[in-house]
Amino acid sequence: MLRTDTPVSVKLEEYTPYPFEIDQVSLDFSLEPSETRVKARMTVRRTQPGPLVLDGVKLKLNEIRLDGKTLGPDAYDLTDETLTIRAVPDAFVLETDVTINPSANTALSGLYISGGRFCSQCEATGFRHITYWPDRPDVMSRFHVRMDADKSKYPILLSNGTPGESGDHSDGRHYAEWDDPHPKPSYLFALCAGDYDVWRDTFTTMNGDHVDLGVYVDKGQAKSAEWAMESLKASMKWDEERFGRAYDLGVFNIVAVRDFNFGAMENKGLNIFNSAYVLASQESATDADFEAIESIVGHEYFHNWTGNRITCRDWFQLCLKEGLTVFRDQEFSSDLRSRPVQRIKDVMRLRARQFAEDAGPLAHPARPSKYGSIDNLYTGTVYEKGSELIRALTVFIGIDAFNKGMQIYFNEYDGTASTIEDFYSCFEKASGKDLSQFRLWYAQAGTPEVKVEESWDAASSTLTLTLSQKIPATPGQPTKQPVPIPLRTALLDGKGAHVGVEGWENGEGVIVLEDEKMTVDLKLTGTSDKPLLSINRQFSAPVRIDRELSNEALLELAAAETDPFNIWDNFQTLARTEIFRLLDNPQSPPDEALVGALGDAVRSNESDPAFAALLTALPDIGELFQHREPVDPAGLNDARKRLRKALGENLKADAERILAKPSPAPFKPNAEQAGIRALRSAMIGLTGALDTADASRKLKSLFDAASNMTESLACLRTLVPFETAERDEVIETFYETWKENPLVIDKWFAVQVGQGTADDARRLSQHPDFDLSNPNRVRSVAAAFSMTNLAAFHARDGEGHKVIGDIILEADKRNPALAARLLTSFEQWRKLEPVAKASAEKVLKDLQSQSLSKNASDILARALG
Ligand code: ARG
Ligand code: ZN
Predict the structure, then answer these.
(1) Residues of the chain whose pLDDT is less than 50?
(2) Ligand 1: does its nearest atom lie under 6 Å from the Cβ of 124?
(3) Which is nearest to 825 in space by CA: 766, 797, 785?
(4) Where do the domains of the chain lie?
């Protein structure tokens, strides 16, 4: 037997095609929680010389037959991870018969049990836990599935495609067949079996085809699936209108499961979702929940074309499907809601997750060239940066060429397992441009820094820009080549108008910085005083902009801006600079001019309350973290609080006025009402920033009066740091009201650790409702603490690090993917001030000495490396 305990890395350059094709496979499942029998019958054809190697992990092999004849043990080699059949003909039928134990599957990869029902998760490498198979995305096959199970326990049997024959046996068992006519890789296989309630609907495609839709949820919860269903229909329509892509099967089902490692999974015709992204009732879901459901339902649906019909050749190409599909879901949300607000939220997420990742030891290119553990590649870089690169491409080649290229991609690559090169060849065709330099974006890690310098020549009415780029060194990549950086640019007159520039249309142009350094002359079409420069409008390129502007100049620019993204971003820059100034000057009061301008900006944008709410959000500690080294998160938190308090004082009367109005009724989860509630919630937060006994009473009465989860939760969150009786009462009441609803109790855990101390995290990790086997609950304590409460997580006493280290150690025994994800919260440890840095290093080294899973070891090795 061969054992591979040391993580070996897989390399892009070592790709070789699989030497066989499997045109068709029939899978036969006899479902029992601890002993499920899986028989596979595959039709195999050789395309190149080589042995037949199949992946398989923790399978009990009962029998193998080749063209009907049982193979003896000397005909094959079995290891912990593979089955190799020594001599096979050029075309043959292979039958395998294995037994697996879904109820022992705590890693939640493969076939497992959640809430007493069978469900599956196969991406990336779960299918090898189900049966022997070439478990790689470039082997695509037509799947036929037959399941049989105890009818009383598992009345509903679902798989990919459309249903075929079904019926009852005499012994209380029943069976159902499903057929998927579209060839697919194994990672898109899915199976669900159990008792559910269903919310049904139908959709007619633009081709006139009828589709039956179903959302399967816990008994008694059908109504909570209504929003997910609305989102699904909106997604189907949007993909037809925006990209001309229709659905291609007569059935589309979504199943909600409580125990799930990620958000959701795009299995062909049978999406499986974390129940957090399906279930939403008016009373129990926040606007953020409604919004996340809409976008994730869209995301998984959009994968049907970008991921399923066109899949990835290998996992190095993951961002081919993920980056592109995130881009599509962001566009979907922008079209359904507010484009500028969506853009700001997407950039906040990018900066928090991806910029941080790119600046630390886990940095990797959007298309890596090697990996230790594929599960650890589902990152902000692959997803969010992957999306930003496509957005930058739309600016670089123009939206028309982009749309044309997408149609070339859909038409030419349908049915294939493709690469980033294939994808980009479509845009080369569409635009006539050579995109080889643009593709460097995919090969180089690190966030480019763009330095912007201006000089004004009044005599010639010309603003000369000097732009230069620098991409920081990242692990394994000490030096970088310049990439094309498309910067949307405008010149402003300070009175709300754009200044004309020769060669530009509609007062805006795109400057592409391709070399390390360039100068551009922007010659005005008329005469003017020195215009104000608005650059990287709408965040057209995922870079950091470095401009030496005084606070006065930034305030002037913020007032002149016409791009909502840049208005928001200018205030973020101002707030960040001010927080660092307060950190360095503990006695100094917050800058009145800035606080006044920010307050005014909030007031003057009240008619767009979602945008106004975003203006009140100061950069969070994770974002501030990236701008100084060594960094003291607790000090930053104090400085940030001082600024927030000043803003709360400035907006006190406005908060009272806004909160005195009733919340919109009757409740609707739409963007318009959500915007109003977002501003109300922001005012609730600022009320708490005042930190007075009066504020505590006020928050308690707002909590008592709240008619929706968004505002109840805002009150609870804001009250957590208070030391008042009202605070304790609200925590208690909230728990008593919602203790039967696990999704709401997840929030209850999360807001407490998100604002509390390491002691709170420790205490809550010992709460009777804490459950190591449920990833949502583990994340609601461990991730909510370590990823959103950096001041407490990195506190100097080291307790934050210890409590998270302890949870990771326990989690890793059952669920390596979950533990590895939690470990990434330590990624910035080297930037910490010396005391916390030492404590983080100790926890990481202690964990490393415990011989953790391959997933966790991969992160540890890189974090410490
Ligand atoms: N493809 C899924 C999605 O983004 C996520 C699958 C995550 N799988 C994993 N092994 N991390 O829609
Ligand atoms: Zn995805």
Answers:
(1) 1-6
(2) yes
(3) 785
(4) 20-195, 311-443, 450-541
